[in-house]
């Protein structure tokens, strides 16, 4: 993994950080949630170009020029999904269909881009009382699960529970259980066009989950799996070949 040279962009709406909500977010994530995720990735991809972008940046930091050079885009959002430009969403969708990897984290399940790519509401049950979460590996043969202990113990986390309104995933890798008895499909993959998508739910603005080494490793494994740097970036097209294109 450390030999992979990728261009990785970590996107965060960064609204909680700007508002200092909760009041502890600056102590937990002094460089923002995006900064913490990027720092964790640098330990696994020291030779890669890892940058961050936020909602407040021009074009949300996701211009055509940036996306054209991006192997993997990570997405964290929570309270400002509707503020994301539809033009940018369409641009990201086009690049994912063309082969760019996408890692969607936590409340990014309600991101415009995730809903658009999956075609469902992506709704779920939730309760935020700082409960313990156990992340169980249910597909240890998958590359994203490589080297991951089972279960990962998260002392305090927001509860996400079923029903999670998503299409049948290509791979179900992790299932989480919570103190209240709920379970959740917390690590799943999808393919759209030529692109690969990994959704991973642990991580919240109220808890320092992104500092946990095993969570960082799952995210790094996810980046490695969705990345396809050798794939020529083009979206599938409808063609109209003339007769006679094939000679027996």
What does this protein look like?
Residues 8-226 form the ThuA-like domain. InterPro entries: ThuA-like (IPR029010), Trehalose_catabolism_ThuA_prok (IPR009381). There is one protein chain. With 248 residues, this protein is an alpha/beta fold. Helix content is 24%, strand content 28%. It has helices spanning 15-19, 25-28, 32-42, 64-68, 86-98, 112-118, 213-226, and strands spanning 7-12, 49-54, 72-76, 101-105, 125-137, 152-161, 171-178, 183-192, 195-200. Strands 2-1-3-4-9-8-7-5-6 form a nine-stranded mixed sheet. A hairpin with a 2-residue loop joins β8 and β9. The longest helix has 14 residues, at 213-226. The radius of gyration is 18 Å and the shape is globular.
Please give the structural blueprint.
Elements (H helix, E strand, L loop, with lengths): L6 E6 L2 H5 L5 H4 L3 H11 L6 E6 L9 H5 L3 E5 L9 H13 L2 E5 L6 H7 L6 E13 L14 E10 L9 E8 L4 E10 L2 E6 L12 H14 L22
Parallel strand pairs: 1-2, 1-3, 3-4, 4-9
Antiparallel strand pairs: 5-6, 5-7, 7-8, 8-9
Helix pairs in contact: 5-6
